[in-house]
Design goal:
The chain has two domains: 93 residues, no CATH class; 209 residues, Vaccinia Virus protein VP39 (Rossmann fold), CATH 3.40.50.150. It is 29% helix and 27% strand. A seven-stranded mixed β-sheet has the order 8-7-6-9-10-14-13, with helices on both faces. The protein has a five-stranded antiparallel β-sheet with strand order 1-5-4-3-2. The chain has a two-stranded antiparallel ribbon with strand order 11-12. Helix 9 runs parallel beside helix 10. The longest helix is centred in the C-terminal third of the chain and has 16 residues. Bound molecules: S-adenosylmethionine. The site of S-adenosylmethionine has 22 residues, from helix 4 and helix 9.
């Protein structure tokens, strides 16, 4: 069975078209046809295989992420007819994504992590899951199909938190979890303090594609340390794509941000060892693919467990 998630994304259309990766798709499902007729959407195929619905009149972009629903989940959890509805109002279209607002598009790590969640659904079922730097919230939407509660967070810049709220609303028919959208800013741990009561039963943390500059990576790891130091014991899953660049200095292709991330993992392992027993491991990436995107060998998944020692 195929399901569709609707993700409003004000910036992806122009980015895709600039890269010349947009083509016309004739593969619109019936609800898409309805949207096209009612809302004058043009249907385009996005870089990750998603159908991008673009309304020139309304300057609105919606991405449809079709995915195969895992048969075991189908049997346990869902009626086959409960496809999500579309709410196409309200997204502003802007010309480009600045580095500051990189959250307002779906990165491949988000789809990779969403596949992992669907494949290992038991890890997430009935849990309170927290996602950091969630961007438009696609991974959280998938986790919310299984979890009992999902706290979706990002830095409060641009309209990202509002966009997450709208995307959760768009897909509410497939969500099981109670949802909460709040700010966590890696550079401002007061935002974590503000969530203390909310976070007291979080046992799983998610992050996708949060590693693209070194200062942010440092801030990310100090946030991870902070979040994982408090009870209850937590497990974190981090999906990322190693981004290779050719440097004259190395005369080779290197992935400096990923190297820096590995250093960050080492740093984390050495923190608060009197209080925390860390387990850090890279997970195999050969789990089933349900979403459509290029599953490159540069996509990696790390698991961190923080077992809290008795005082
Ligand atoms: C490359 S995007 C990934 C978004 C999403 N996880 C995905 O994979 O599609 C990086 C994310 O980091 C977030 N971010 C940037 N600075 C941050 C900060 N100081 N604290 C928390 N998140 C931040 C961005 O808003 C953005 O959502």
């Amino acid at each position: 069975m195929a399901l569709t998630l609707k993700i409003g994304n004000p910036r992806s259309y122009r980015n895709l078209s600039e890269k010349g990766e947009v083509g016309t798709s004739s593969d619109l499902g019936c609800e898409g046809q309805q949207e096209q007729e009612d809302e004058e959407f043009e249907c385009l195929l996005g870089a990750n295989g998603q159908v991008v619905l673009w309304s020139p009149r309304r300057e609105t972009v919606l991405s449809r992420f079709d995915f195969a629903y895992p048969p075991d989940l189908q049997a346990q959890d869902r009626s086959p007819n409960s496809c999500p509805q579309v709410d196409s109002d309200g997204d502003l279209h802007q010309n480009a994504t600045t580095l500051d607002l990189v959250g307002e598009q779906v990165w491949r790590g988000a789809l990779f992590l969403a596949d992992f969640i669907l494949h290992y659904s038991d890890i997430f079922r009935g849990k309170h899951v927290l996602e950091v730097a969630s961007g438009v919230g696609l991974t959280s939407v998938v986790a919310a199909m299984l979890a009992i509660k999902i706290t979706v967070t990002d830095v409060d810049k641009g309209e990202i938190l509002e966009l997450i709220r709208r995307n959760l609303k768009r897909n509410e028919d497939v969500l099981k979890a109670e949802v909460c959208v709040k700010e966590i800013d890696f550079y401002n741990h007061d935002t974590i303090d503000d969530l203390q009561a909310n976070n007291k039963d979080v046992s799983v943390i998610l992050a996708a594609d949060v590693v693209y500059n070194n200062p942010l990576t440092d801030a990310f790891f100090s946030t991870v340390l902070r979040l994982m130091s408090d009870p209850p014991e937590k497990t974190m899953f981090i999906a990322l794509e190693k981004r290779y660049v050719f440097t004259m200095e190395d005369m080779d292709s290197v992935a400096p941000c990923y190297e820096y991330f590995l250093d960050g993992l080492e740093w984390l392992r050495s923190q608060r060892t009197d209080h925390i027993e860390w387990t850090v491991e890279e997970l195999p990436s050969d789990f089933e693919q349900y979403f459509t995107y290029e599953r490159t060998r540069h996509l990696v998944l790390w698991k961190i467990n923080a077992k809290l020692k008795q005082p």
